[in-house]
Write a structure and sequence with these properties.
Length: 81
């Protein structure tokens, strides 16, 4: 892992350290590319939910239309004499 310079005292510290061990200044690892993730667990969950809804919704709509058709046939045949 590459070390970064402390913004206050300039000493080399780990980007994962919460503060500089020399001066106590808070460390932010914004410039380290390994700490940034493109896909986070929250984003992955949202994408999965959207994809699942996109794939499942047409089947639910077809099932409801099929059940409505069956109910209509039952009403038609029971009311006809």
């Amino acid at each position: 892992m590459a070390l970064i310079d402390c913004p206050d005292c300039g000493r080399r510290v780990s980007p994962r350290a919460p503060s500089c061990p020399n001066c106590g200044a808070p460390i932010t690892a914004t410039g380290h590319p390994a700490d940034r993730r493109l896909v986070t667990p929250g984003l992955l969950g949202r994408l999965t939910a959207v994809l699942g809804a996109w794939l499942v919704f047409p089947w639910v709509a077809r099932l409801l239309a099929f059940l409505a058709g069956i109910a209509m046939l039952i009403v038609m045949f029971t009311s006809a004499r």
